[in-house]
UniProtKB/TrEMBL annotation:
PANTHER family: ATP-DEPENDENT RNA HELICASE RHLE (PTHR47959:SF13), ATP-DEPENDENT RNA HELICASE RHLE-RELATED (PTHR47959). This is DEAD-box ATP-dependent RNA helicase RhpA. Residues 371-474 are annotated as: Disordered. Residues 236-381 form the Helicase C-terminal domain. A motif (Q motif) lies at residues 3-31. It catalyses: ATP + H2O = ADP + phosphate + H(+).
Amino acid sequence: MTTTFEALGLDTRILQALAEEGYSSPTPIQAQSIPSVMEGRDLLGIAQTGTGKTAAFSLPILHRLAQQTGRPPRYGCRVLVLSPTRELASQIADSVRAYGRHLGLSTTVVFGGVGFGGQKSALARGVDILVATPGRLQDLIDQGAARLDHVTTLVLDEADQMLDKGFLPAIRRLLKAIPQQRQTLFFSATMPAEINKLAAEMLTDPVRVAVAPVATTAEKVAQRVIHLPANGKREALADLLRMDGIGRTLVFSRTKHGADRIVKQLGQDGITANAIHGNKAQNARERALAAFRDGSAPVLVATDIAARGIDVDGVTHVIQFDLPEVPETYVHRIGRTARAGATGEAIALCSHEDRDKLRAIERLIRQQIPAETRAGAAAPEPARAPAPRQPQQQQQKPPRGAHKPQRQPQHRPGGHAAPAEPKRQGDGPRPQGGDSARRRPAAASQDAPRRDRSWREGDFRDGAPAPAFLRRGR
């Protein structure tokens, strides 16, 4: 496997930028992807978050653009990168600008939550590389401010999160505006059936690169789970954040309201934190990320909008205040730490109500997470070994009808024996002549009550006559 970027044959100006960023050796997905992308091949990349996917597609794209001449079309772009979240789109654009700083190429990012003016102005001039979220890009196309008919390379990043966020219909609409003759790069951490189907539709004879088994956790992340009562999570979180060795820490909440509540409670406990979620304005989200990066607020409480959209170096801990509903989300959350060769720790707070979610996560990652129990929590259930199979003993089958009182057989015409019925007062002789005769009502005596006592005339209130269907045959 290639051990240096120089050996990959990248443009010298890109190598200079990589050296300035402090990168000298490609990650496995970069080493396997870059040569094929430089050749113009379609690619299907499967890798967990934090493995260097952004450089795996942006470096060879920059190299190919550097070899071309001409200007991008007005309102259009030559390369389109689709991302599921604003944060991830911004970080992809920042990385592309850093790697291509000496190439003179233009890069623009568009996403929702901000005004259209600046984005329309940038697209009006034409851009080489456009990084966009699907919803905002579709809005710009509908307004006549963007066109995709000159796209030569399409990148779909974090495709499985696109599925989670319901973006697949929007992506299919965008694909209709992009030329069929193009290079397509498709990256995903997991491959559910719907994503696999989309990849088959988009890619032509792709190179497949898988650097880690699907749904596995980063090797350098130390994981543990703390079992505790639900009302003990606040105290446990504050205790963890006061421990030695805690640096930048991401805390995950299931809901937006829950994230704001956690920040408020941490403030009451003397711990500075900010929240980031979908209800926050874009400038508030950017301020929270900036404070997280510079260390002025080293605790960031996030919903899953940030599970793959935050790429900040030096995150030492990921704490899951709420376990996720979808087990795969656990993998993406803890991938925020132990990045770029560093180590990190992931801690999950698990109440009794979270036990089923924990078991689903452990089944997905195929390992048991080391556990500890806090006071007041029920001890976790130990894994149950299957009970040994007991040899089956031959048991004599009880005779049919043994649970019922035995009746004496009664001779029935035709040689068949039938169980005798108890004699009831007024019963006439059993009719002869076969089954059809037995089904007809007995007419032996006008005064004889019917065999089924629940339908005798005396049972009808106020002496009303029996219904016609009971009087037939009398």
